[in-house]
Amino acid sequence: MGSISGLIVGVASAARHGSAVFIILVVLEIILLSVRLLSLRSIAKASNAVRITRVDQPIWLSILWCGLQGATAFFAMRTGDTILMVLTATMVMALIGPLCARNYAAPRLALLLVALCDFPFVAGAVSTGNPWFYILVGITPMFLLGAIQIVTNYNSAMVRALTAEHRNLELSRRDPLTGLLNRGGLDSQLQILAPTRPVAIIAMDLDGFKEINDTYGHAAGDDILEQAAARMRKQVSGLYALARLGGDEFMAVLVDQTPQEVKANAEEILSAIRNKSFQLHNGFSVNIGISVGYACLPEDAQSVLKLRVYADDALYAAKHAGKGLTARYCQKMATA
């Protein structure tokens, strides 16, 4: 809409004065409008295809466009034509609000765009020699300070809103005790995995955790869960996501790992938990066990959903075999 408004003022200026400069400005406006429309179409395509888009081109086009509006305003004001001066002043003032509102996420860019429109307009008015237009020189700094305040306030509000939204999202998808993903957070991570990427899921369950909770209390259980989570995070390579599903159940998602590498990771977790003691807040030291099951995609499953089920099947096979073991899914473990 701003481009159309600028084009109308440019055409009106060319019609009233027939100057070559206005004809050139109109031609440039049409060319730039066409390029901007093509750029917006390209961005829309990339957005619909969920691709990352580059923003440098539209930014440069916006800067060029505002410079063109400033040039049109400068030459229109210099004509001294009352009609053109009123049209130009209306156009420039009408542009300022949308420029601030649309670019508040980038305050310096917004100020640059406003200045590119406003400064040439003021310079053109002053160049007519009418002393009353010097008032514009005096009020322009205050005008720009007001624009800065508007942009800054919008920007601060946006940052606060996005920060709060991000914090709430993190709280909703993370386990408050260990800082790991919770079940919902793990599900969201699994949903965005590329289906053609090698994926493995390791399911883990602490052995003897209930007895320690019953003997030393829930605070001791929390100590163990926090330390166990830290050891898992440290031991696993190729880690994509690590979650506490509830109680003493954990699940790790690995990407771009061979089945042999997944097995090595499972063994590392087993060793880090089973063979090392845990220090409790009351000064006691305890040992705890762990059972581990894992499954690989595409070797063991054809979907991430099945992969998760199969990793659980392998975990319970390890527990039934005597606990303190690792097991990989095989077809005979399939749940009924």
Walk me through the topology.
Elements: H1 2-17, H2 20-48, H3 56-78, H4 82-102, H5 107-126, H6 134-173, H7 183-191, E1 199-207, H8 209-216, H9 218-235, E2 239-246, E3 249-255, H10 259-274, E4 278-279, E5 285-286, E6 289-297, H11 304-320, E7 326-328
Parallel strand pairs: 6-7
Antiparallel strand pairs: 1-3, 1-6, 2-3, 4-5
Helix pairs in contact: 1-2, 1-3, 1-4, 2-3, 3-4, 3-5, 4-5, 4-6, 5-6, 8-9, 9-10
Polypeptide structure, described:
The chain has 336 residues and is of the alpha+beta class. 65% of the residues lie in helices and 12% in strands. The chain is built from 11 helices and 7 strands. The strands form 2 sheets. It has a 5-stranded mixed sheet with strand order 2-3-1-6-7, with helices on both faces. Helix 1 packs parallel to helix 3. The model has no long low-confidence stretch (mean pLDDT 88).
